[in-house]
Amino acid sequence: MDLFTFDDEYVRRLREGDRWTEEHFTSYFQQILLIKLRRRLPSLDAIDDVRQTTFVRFFEKLHSPDGGIRDGRRLGAYVNSICTNVLFEWYRKANRTEPLTDEHLDIVTLEDVVTALLNAEETEHVRTVIADLPKRDALILRAHFFEQRRPDDLSRELRIKPGYLRVLLHRAKDKFRKSWRRNVTRMHPDETDDDHPSLPD
Q1: Is the pLDDT assigned to residue 113 strictly greater than 60?
Q2: What are the boundaries of each domain within the chain?
Q3: 5: nearest Cα among 74, 84, 78, 82
Q4: Which residue from 35, 38, 158, 199 lies 20 to 30 Å from 44 (Cα-Cα)?
């Protein structure tokens, strides 16, 4: 799907209840959030629950006294961060009743990064987070996220076994996830700690 470029005028129309804008917003982010959530949640019901909660929280923020979002160009990233918080809450709640699989814990994937790359500013932010990681972790993540290199080719370049590459990739993703979360918190200082629940154990 094509990525839409948002601006302050779009947010103004959304805040004023313009019908076309609301329909476009809902349709667009239904698809975006499906890409983010379809491999992270076990059922369509769970996906719908997280999406609807995301929409409810977004519109609550949008109509709050401070207006919720101050820069229309960051609307996509703003919705994405709300969805991420809701998803973490879902994991924490699920973890109280049943164990989570490695697939649930391995949150950051190429699809998550694509979702984050909703505008040029977010693209630069992702690259900055990766650049701040140790050299080997950054190399592996660039190859995985942006270059889509074959694991066998990357293993040969690093002179390691494919099985160990999977271990390194998992560790690099974990470092990226934690660094990304720290950066998101700094980017949204007006949100409380409750808006940023910790990752499930």
Answers
A1: no
A2: 1-103, 119-189
A3: 74
A4: 199
